[in-house]
């Protein structure tokens, strides 16, 4: 990757970045492709990349109604972990984590992956028993997990107060050392560049307005830039999955909710890992710039707004100060909201549909970012072979008819 000096960066800024080389092409859409991916976020770009790299499909278009990484990919807190309770969830998330570990090298792009560890805090004996159960389940599935007592938690994260007089005393925590954080825009840029190099057309400012069908099979899409024909169309649009599916006459078992997060002013390094608490209901990490990145649960009302609400911010701040009183004097610098789509069992949909040639990757709820490479990898297999990847097989639409749900509501520990 080409490196720039400080003065070359300053020069480019002063002349409006007109001298930057394009990281990927800006092609005009063709009339037809072998496959169309709707959605230019992390999951969509990863799907296109693995379709081209591992399945030899090079005549692919990724359609993005805005700009690459401008949706949920740029509106999350980038926590990476795979310590989920059920076998099916552990498989997909640990598959993703394994890909995360080598993704920067594979894409030849610095995604700023930091395996700093994720702590899930227990505040009472009941919560401790539940988390220890998860540790044992993780180990049975080959997922790294440890149980730490209060003193070991303090040693791993020195700023945590383990006093028994605290309002929420800490009795222990699970630790996944491979977990951590990365840089969301770097990930989507890396996937976009790598997919483009394999011949994938990445088309921005191209909103899909309809899905064309004939005799129960998809034939292409209608867009703001014209009709595009394709025998395979895949929807990977996060919070708007229900909207796109309805264009194909499908009703998905999904609700869309706003999800908010915020960051503090930058401070010196004090938080060496990701800390999550379900009882207090907050999670926090520190970025490389020194900002505290803070999040919690979804807004309970349904909607597609990306604006925040004061009550959610107040709840997040109250929870964080309960966990870390020393942060009470920090100023919050900015806040944002994303749109998450949630299935009844809090697990995703990675599936072909009753419309032949139409595929859906949706319902990741608050856990989508950590699944990005694994989701794209198994979804690409599903599209290429018209059959689910073995890891994705439990997450087809059929489970809502059969009752074979993967109920991860409690095992997610805290929404993020």
Strand content bin: 15-25%
CATH H-level name of the domain at 115-178 and 256-342... which superfamily? D-Amino Acid Oxidase, subunit A, domain 2
The CATH architecture of the domain at 115-178 and 256-342:
2-Layer Sandwich
Range of helix content = 25-40%
Helical/strand content category: alpha/beta
Low-confidence stretches: none
Distance between the termini: 32 Å
CATH class of the domain at 115-178 and 256-342, named Alpha Beta
**What order do the strands of the largest sheet run in, or round the barrel if closed?**
5-6-4-14-15-16-13-17
Q: What's the helix count? A: 10
Strand element count? 19
Could you report the average pLDDT, rounded to the nearest whole number?
93
> Biggest β-sheet: count, sense, barrel?
8 strands, mixed
Order of helices and strands: HEHEEHEHEHEEHEEEEEHEEEEHEEEHH
Instruction: Say what oligomer this is.
Output: single chain
Shape: globular
Explain what you see:
The protein is α/β, with parallel strands linked by helices and 416 residues long. The chain has a domain at 115-178 and 256-342: D-Amino Acid Oxidase, subunit A, domain 2 (D-Amino Acid Oxidase, Chain A, domain 2, 2-Layer Sandwich). Helix content is 29%, strand content 23%. The protein contains ten helices and 19 strands. The strands form four sheets. The chain has an eight-stranded mixed beta sheet with strand order 5-6-4-14-15-16-13-17. It has a six-stranded mixed beta sheet with strand order 8-2-1-12-19-18, with helices on both faces. A hairpin with a 2-residue loop joins β10 and β11 (226-229). The model has no long low-confidence stretch (mean pLDDT 93).
């Amino acid at each position: 990757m080409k490196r720039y000096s400080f003065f070359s960066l300053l020069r480019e800024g002063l002349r409006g970045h007109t001298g930057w080389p394009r990281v990927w092409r800006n092609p005009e859409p063709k009339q037809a492709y072998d496959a169309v991916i709707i959605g230019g976020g992390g999951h969509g770009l990863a799907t296109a990349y693995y379709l081209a790299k591992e399945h030899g499909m090079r005549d692919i278009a990724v359609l993005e109604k805005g700009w690459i990484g401008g949706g949920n990919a740029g509106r999350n807190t980038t926590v990476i972990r795979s310590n989920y309770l059920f076998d099916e969830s552990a498989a997909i998330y640990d598959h993703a984590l394994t890909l995360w570990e080598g993704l920067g090298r594979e894409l030849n792009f610095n995604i700023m992956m930091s395996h700093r560890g994720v702590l899930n805090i227990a505040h009472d004996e009941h919560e401790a028993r539940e988390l220890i159960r998860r540790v044992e389940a993780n180990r049975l599935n080959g997922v790294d997990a440890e149980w730490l007592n209060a003193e070991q938690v303090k040693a791993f994260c020195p700023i945590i107060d383990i006093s028994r007089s605290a309002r929420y005393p800490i009795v222990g925590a699970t630790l996944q050392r491979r977990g951590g954080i990365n840089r969301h825009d770097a990930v989507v840029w890396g996937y976009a560049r790598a997919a483009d190099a394999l011949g994938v057309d990445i088309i921005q400012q191209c909103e899909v307005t309809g899905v064309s069908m004939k005799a129960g099979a998809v034939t292409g899409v209608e867009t703001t830039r014209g009709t595009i024909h394709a025998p395979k169309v895949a929807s990977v649009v996060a919070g708007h999955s229900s909207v796109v599916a309805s264009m194909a006459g499908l009703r998905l078992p999904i609700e869309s909710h706003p999800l908010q997060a915020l960051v503090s002013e930058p401070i010196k390094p004090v938080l060496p890992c990701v800390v999550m608490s379900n009882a207090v209901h907050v999670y926090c990490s520190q970025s490389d710039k020194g900002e505290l990145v803070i999040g919690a649960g979804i807004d309970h009302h349904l909607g597609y707004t990306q604006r925040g609400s004061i009550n959610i911010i107040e709840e997040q701040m109250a929870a964080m100060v309960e966990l870390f009183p020393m942060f009470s004097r920090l100023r919050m610098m900015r806040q944002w909201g994303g749109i998450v789509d949630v299935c009844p069992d809090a697990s995703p949909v990675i599936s072909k549909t009753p419309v032949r040639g139409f595929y859906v990757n949706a319902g990741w709820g608050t856990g989508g970012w950590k699944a990005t490479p694994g989701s794209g990898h198994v979804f690409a297999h599903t599209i290429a072979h018209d059959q689910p990847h073995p890891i994705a097989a439990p997450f087809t639409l059929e489970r809502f008819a059969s009752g074979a749900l993967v109920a991860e509501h409690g095992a997610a520990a805290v929404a993020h």
